[in-house]
Specification:
10 strands, 20% helix, 2 domains, 4 helices, alpha+beta, Pseudouridine synthase, 229 residues
Length: 229
């Protein structure tokens, strides 16, 4: 059974939602796909119109902010443009060579058909930083990487992890082994300053995560709240 979306928090001009994997943010022409998140959110939030200042890929799960007014969407867009949003992801990767994923990574990406490819020049500069790596609790050959996404290019995390030698488990488009389209990539924490922090607590879809990573997510969220005081 497919996981259902849920409301993480709700305010007058915006809401923070949990988007399950397998559901697009906005309308899709695929009749076999799950209803898009915007359709679900309009009913759940009793809104006729919603705006997405950012999006997640259909196969990625996690935090999505939706704006209830154009003004709120524009405000969020300006915050994103000046780099005020800090996004933290959990990625389940092949453990072999995964130590290469730690630290700040800078590559250039270009969209070619359905994939993003790393190029030497002429691509979009793409940044992310691997913060912590731990072997999963349910597989000795897989690991969870906690990373901060500093830019949001098309398929950025998927393409960069694969280029560095440790693709997402199950991400067959980028060379990952396992059942196709079953990869685990989660936007787990969003920090926006001024005390606005959205953290996904452990849930059923988050399998085998080491306690060190859960503790680090909580520390990052707590630190952001403390700094805003």
């Amino acid at each position: 059974m497919m996981e259902e979306p849920r409301i993480v928090s709700d305010s007058l001009d915006e809401a923070v939602l949990y988007k399950p994997a397998g559901r697009s943010c906005e309308g899709t022409s695929d009749a076999l796909a799950a209803p898009p998140l915007d359709r679900w959110a309009k009913a759940a939030l009793h809104c006729d119109a919603l705006w997405f200042p950012h999006r997640l890929d259909r196969l990625t799960r996690g935090i999505v902010v939706v704006s209830k007014t154009r003004e709120a969407a524009a405000r969020s867009g300006e915050e994103i443009k000046r780099g005020a949003w800090k996004k933290f992801y959990l990625a389940r990767v092949h453990r072999e060579h995964s130590v290469r994923l730690l630290g700040l990574q800078r590559l250039y990406l270009r969209k070619v058909g359905p994939r993003a490819v790393v190029v030497q020049s002429g691509g979009d500069p793409s940044f992310q930083e691997g913060l912590m790596l731990r072997t999963t609790r349910d597989s000795s050959v897989e690991a969870h990487l906690l990373l901060r996404l500093d830019s949001g290019r098309f398929h950025q995390i998927r393409a960069m992890l694969a280029h560095l030698g440790s693709p997402l488990v199950g991400d067959t488009l980028y060379g990952g082994e396992g059942a196709a389209h079953t990869f685990e990539l989660e936007h787990a924490l969003l920090v926006r300053g001024e005390g606005r922090c959205s953290l996904l607590q452990p849930h059923t879809a988050r399998r085998g995560v080491h306690p060190d990573i859960e503790a680090e997510l909580l520390r990052l969220a707590t630190e952001s709240a403390t700094q805003s005081m």
